[in-house]
Amino acid sequence: MFPLKDKWILITGASSGFGAAAGRAFAAHGARLLLGARRLERLQQVAAEARQAGAPEAHAHVLDVRQTASVEAFVNWARSRISPRQPADARLDVLINNAGGAHGLDPVAQGKDEDWEAMLQINVLGILRMTRAALPLMERNPGSTIINVGSLAGHVAYEGGAAYCAAKAGERQITRALRLELNGTGIRVCSVDPGMAETEFSLVRFKGDAARAQQVYAGTQPLTAEDIAEILVWVASRPPHVNIDELLVKPTDQAAIHKVHRRPA
Ligand code: NDP
Ligand code: 8X3
Asked: In this structure, is residue 44 part of a structural domain?
């Protein structure tokens, strides 16, 4: 067991869904939190909930993983929170690269540049930027853990998912390359790859169309954000010599990407 009490956990995309639930779940183990996303008010709410749930410290700061300058400013802020007197000596215990999502479900023939660019920026380049910036805080901290949130979509393709599936396949390969690069440092590198989970994911994918988003989950029992948060806590709390390489988790109703059991209304 790797005790999480007082450990520093940095979570990207912590303003909703898995990231917000992870903030609360790590807090319940007494961990200290650094929460990032674009919506500051939502982050501050999650930080308040985390303190209530038992986090000795929970801090929020704006982060846009599409921008290198924003990522670097965020990590500098994180350093000053972890080690206010000696920011250069700050040590991070867990980095959760969770910020991400899908934009649109158009087939390639109708695909939009802005959707493709957003998905690759956030899900792929965002992880690279965040990891590059945070690694100096982990390099002399064996047992520390990087968890990248991937997807079932990184394992299999589906119609309308070309760019998202490519982005999440990219996340898997980044995770694998990093594990090779960091071998010998004691830093763990993991990918947690969920299937269908009900969060704001579909609302974002369908650009605010709530009725279309709800259809995704109609008649079936998807995963919840809390299900994934519990898994993130479990992965991070394995003993330091144990690395969970890749963890694929789907709802029982989802046997495969195209085979979802739905009950009649
Ligand atoms: P949500 O939409 O609820 O959460 C996405 C989070 O990412 C939000 O906090 C959002 O915050 C943040 N985010 C988006 N863009 C940026 C950005 N440019 N910079 C910083 N933060 C950003 O969805 P989920 O919780 O479901 O998604 C979390 C992760 O899980 C994503 O990587 C997603 O691809 C993945 N996933 C989701 C599945 C699902 O079915 N729900 C299944 C498999 C994987 P804000 O808008 O405030 O910036
Ligand atoms: C989200 C899961 O199957 O909708 O990553 O692409 S899926």
From this structure: yes
Structural domain of 177: 8-251
Spatial contact of 59 and 68, defined as CB atoms under 8 Å apart: no
CA distances to 3, 120, 242 from 188, rounded to whole Å, are: 15, 24, 8
Ligand 1 centroid from CA 103, angstroms: 11
Number of H helices, E strands in the chain: 9, 9
Strand order in the sheet with 188-194: 58-62, 32-37, 8-12, 94-97, 145-149, 188-194, 246-249
Ligand 1 atom closest to Cα of residue 203 = 2
Q: C-alpha 218: how far from its chain's center?
A: 25
Coil, helix or strand for 77? helix
Query: pLDDT band at 127, cuts 50/70/90?
Result: very high
* Residue found by looking up tokens 């956990």 in the block: 9
In this structure, is residue 257 part of a structural domain?
Answer: no
CATH number assigned to the domain comprising residue 45: 3.40.50.720
- C-alpha–C-alpha distance, residues 18 and 225, integer Å: 5
Ligand 2 centroid, distance to 251 Cα (angstroms): 12
CB 91 near ligand 1, within 6 Å: no
Ligand 2 contact via 163 beta carbon (within 6 Å): no
Tens-digit pLDDT profile for residues 151-170: 999 999 999 999 999 999 99
Q: Per-residue pLDDT averaged across 197-219, rounded?
A: 98
Residue 29 lies in a domain: yes
Q: Is 188 helix (H, G, I), strand (E, B) or coil?
A: strand
Position 2 scores a pLDDT of 86
Give the residue, out of 123, 149, 164, with the most ligand 2 atoms within 8 A of its beta carbon, to mutate for a pocket test.
Answer: 164
